[in-house]
Known about the structure:
It is a single chain. The protein has two domains: 2-141, Immunoglobulins (Immunoglobulin-like, Sandwich), CATH 2.60.40.10; 151-491, 6 Propeller (Neuraminidase). Strands 11, 12, 13, 14 and 15 form a five-stranded antiparallel sheet that branches. Strands 16, 17, 18, 19 and 20 form a five-stranded antiparallel sheet that branches. A four-stranded antiparallel sheet has the order 6-5-8-9, with no helix packed on it. It contains two helices and 35 strands. 5% of the residues lie in helices and 40% in strands. Residues 49, 51, 53, 79-81, 126, 128, 130 line the site of one calcium ion (CA).
Amino acid sequence: MANWRSTIGWMVLGSSVLLAGCGGGGGEAGSATDATADGREVPDALAADTELPTLVLNTPANLAANLTGRIDITADASDNVGIAGVEFQIDGALWGDDDTNPPYMTSITTSRLTTGQHVIRARARDTSNNRSAWVTRVVQFGNDVQVPEGFTKTALVGGFDGATSFAQAPDGRIFIAQQNGQIRVIKNGALLPTPFATLANVNNEGSERGLGGIVLHPDFASNGWVYVYYTTTEGGIHNRISRFTANGDVAAGPPTALFGLPTLTTTMHNGGAMHFGIDGKLYVGVGDGGLGAPAQDRTSLFGKMLRLNDDATIPTDNPYYGTNTGNARAVWAIGLRNPFTFAIRPSDGRIHINDVGQNTWEEIDVGIAGANYGWPNSEGPDNLTAAFTAPLFTYRHTAATPPGSAVGGFIIGRCIAGGAFYPVGGSFPARFQGNYFFADFTTHEISRVDLSNGNAVYAFAKTVGEPVDLRVATDGALLVLTRNNIVRIAPT
Length: 492
Ligand SMILES: [Ca+2]
Ligand SMILES: [Ca+2]
């Protein structure tokens, strides 16, 4: 059927190409020659063809859902002179060679790519190498495919009790934070029986309090510093950043408390993610504590990204250093609900903040000093004003009507948790490099943002367990931390 439509389409368009070649069909052949400025006439063949070709993508339909089996991607193209070929892309990468003969088409067996959203594009090229704009179709593949063709997914290490965050040392060891306050170490692929440390006086009431974040100092190999973010009962229940020093595979002693956050009044939205920027500063995601409004108060530490020196003193170039006082001088960006995870791109320091949503939307925000991401006045694309920095990408909690038609397309979830930039030069194929990967705790899906193709988002993988964190490992694999194990995804 698809081929038939394409063929008929070409026949119609082929006629129009002929008509165009005949000077509009008037028989006058008026375009056979053109006058130059000095009155000489030159044949058309020597005049540059600057008119772009056009393309119509016939199948699949935009927002086609639950596609299974083999699907045809079919297009018609037309041009004032002639079509040289049509290029097809799937998820931002060329799919096969140019089709140089009508009917223009390619096909894909849907089971080759992960179940979920994919983006199909086509454009035409004329005989003078002019190209049409890309024509895009956002579609959803069905089946039950959990990694794309060419990748394998393996359960690396399990046995964790409520994991929340992880970090990898340059020597390959992986440090796991458990919500109950225990820090575990994976060495040579095995979970060591003796914990690195067990925090005293941890409060892990509700589903969100407890040990929520762990990060290693950039010079960990020489100083052994391990930072944790956890809810302590000491001095009133509040979140705290403390620092251990490693002695081999265990902590040398109790941690040093470095930075205290305000007393908590609910168990919700504790944040806890920590990473070092390429500026050597410690960035910290702090939730709104279930309170909402303080996220808009730049003098409150709730609902913020903080920026600290590695000894938890406050950098004097922070955006509110001069206007805030005390610990509030650490505020770096405001208007967040629960930035439970974020990521920093090693190549240039770009920051993506994953802010967990309340009513309708999950969002990825680009980290900017002094930015206001809107919460609780704004969530996702709703109620944005000029005062708020809009998300880079946002996806709904429930499907739109029709499915895929709202911002975020077919990506659905209720709790964004885990983000990682895949580096250029890593072991993944080129089309995955430079992408930003993020996970959703509730759907177990891992998607990727194609930053070089208009931030299009494609389904990448799905795990059995609930993802809480993502990391690109030292060997180039993508590691997914779930509540009870680490899943390793890498090219076969
Ligand atoms: Ca042309
Ligand atoms: Ca927002």
